[in-house]
Amino acid sequence: MSAFLKLSPQDNVQVALRAAPAGTPLSGAGSVVTLTDVSMAHKVTDQPIPAGALVVKYGLPIGVATQDIPAGAHVHVHNIRSRYTATHYRAEEAGLSHD
Amino acid sequence: MTEMLGYARSDGRKGIRNVVAVAYLVECAHFVAREVVAEFRGQPVHLIGFPGCYPNDYAQAMMERLCTHPNVGAVLLVSLGCESFNRSRLEAVIAATGRPVETLVIQKAGGSRETIRKGAAFVARALEEIATLPRVPMQVSDLTVATICGGSDGTSGISGNPAAGLAFDALVKQGATCIFEETGELIGCEHIMAERAATPELAEELKACVAKAARYYETLGYGSFAAGNATGGLSTIEEKSLGAYVKSGASPISGIIKPGDLPPTGGLYLMDVVPDGEVRFGFPNIADNAEIVEMIASGAHLTLFITGRGSVVGSAISPVIKICANPETYRALAGDMDVNAGAVIEGEKSLSEVAEEILARIMATAAGEETRSEGLGHQEFILTYKSFTPAGPACLPKSA
Questions:
Q1: Which of B26, B53, B96, B296 has its Cα between 20 and 30 A from that of B190?
Q2: DSSP letter at B335?
Q3: From what superkingdom does this record's organism come (chain B) (predicted)?
């Protein structure tokens, strides 16, 4: 079973079904591999997302890219933001140490 | 399958538990009430209460609903004496249902020690008295089932919540009443949710109550999003919302209720938990149990609690079935979990197999089997200040 799940065909992110080391291939995304280690249930892009573009999961927007995100990159609080309310998180615990 | 036998209550509803509720009516009476409950460890005696000294219509209405919930067989009210809570009205509402009820006022009963002694004597008598209540056959259509997710992570929206959604669809099909909640965690889903409304007017109300939640949380400066959600891979409130939304299943939405409203018919209801009017009294729900209490006040016999990070809570009055979405969390906290939906993440089970497991747990729990949190003695309860205006006419279906 692939380590990654694409929930909807319109999505530009995939979800890690288990912890995936850097270099893990994404699901049905050709040569795209994870650029860093990724924790279970975190997201990775399977295509480049330009700054300002919508990040799509479940076929629906979950936020906006705050910077250009290359294919295979970890997508999280450091490079996307809510279109509603800001996300509160503790940086040391948000699984970002490798980024 | 085990037959469901309910406790017949005078309002026609049936209970799946027969609890003696011990309720403090101000924080100053909390310790004394807790000491009464402590004498009955392992027996169905549950502590509930309201801590505030200032009057609040919402808290009064909630306590009336909770004390006359079908899972409650008798009530002891513990008052300090000088608080604002209208204890005589609460006692009258309970007495009118035929339930044994007694009010002890600490300032008149001789202080802490005497109140604890008298309270324990009442509870012992009440337990004996309600043990002989008649049991009547109960159908799935007699059940009200609530759902909540707490301690969510990136697994919640792909295993536990969609499995709970399938279970909800099966319950609605059999005529049960199902309640989902937390409009603050539906932000970003309002348009897809509105498409499921039973009427166009209800669709507008659904969008309006999510917009209200977004405004409310905006004023407070925080979304309904905890730091642990981000640790678990969730990045924004919209992402958390979409994962949470799927636990409502795919049935049409019959109506919107506010905390304490009893749904007039079976079907699927959204509970609007965000107060009306200007922001007052702080966060809508300070922790998961506040919402569980509100759904119990609206008649929930039991609650499905889907967790990714790993919540261990139960509840006073109505059992909580814990569904763990994350397989690693399940292995770490198996003693607290009733269903392992993490098996979906590991490719060992399908969503519909987990949904079947959830339905089987619901039936067993309704038939009297203890959930994990019940077995461990969990009885969490929170009730704080809020204010609501009544739900508008477009929010509810015509009573059957």
A1: B296
A2: G
A3: Bacteria
A95 touching B (Cβ < 8 Å): yes
Q: What are phi and psi of B237, to 5 degrees?
A: -65, -35
pLDDT tens-place string over residues B156-177: 999 999 999 999 999 999 999 9
Could you report the per-residue pLDDT of B8-53, keeping only the tens digit for each?
Answer: 999 999 999 999 999 999 999 999 999 999 999 999 999 999 999 9
- Alpha-carbon distance of B146 to B296, in angstroms, equals 8
Direct distance between the N- and C-terminal alpha carbons of chain A, in angstroms, rounded to an integer: 26
Contact B176, B265 (CB under 8 A): no
- Interatomic CA distance for residues B243 and B252, integer angstroms: 18
CA distance A51 to chain B (A): 16
> Taking a C-beta distance cutoff of 8 angstroms, is the pair B244, A53 a contact?
no
Shortest CA distance from B152: residue in chain A:
A41
CB-based contact, B230 to chain A, within 8 Å: yes
Residues B366 and B302 sit within 8 Å (Cβ to Cβ): yes
* Cα B218 from Cα B279, distance rounded (Å): 10
User: What domains lie within chain A, and their CATH numbers?
Assistant: 1-89 (2.30.130.110)
User: Residue B230 and residue A85: Cβ atoms within 8 Å?
Assistant: no
Residues linked to residue B257 through DSSP beta bridges, in sequence order: B271
Rounded CA-CA distance B177/B141 in Å is 7
Domains of chain B: 5-136 (3.40.50.2300), 140-395 (no CATH)
Sign of CA dihedral B191, B195, B196, B197: positive
Kindly provide the ipTM of the predicted complex, given to two decimals. 0.93
The CA distance from B280 to the nearest CA of chain A, in Å, is: 19
CA A63 to chain CA centroid, Å, is 11
- Phi, psi of B79, deg, nearest 5: -115, 145
What is the 8-class DSSP label of residue B82?
S
Query: Largest Cα–Cα distance in chain B?
Result: 63
Element (H, E) at A55: strand A54-57
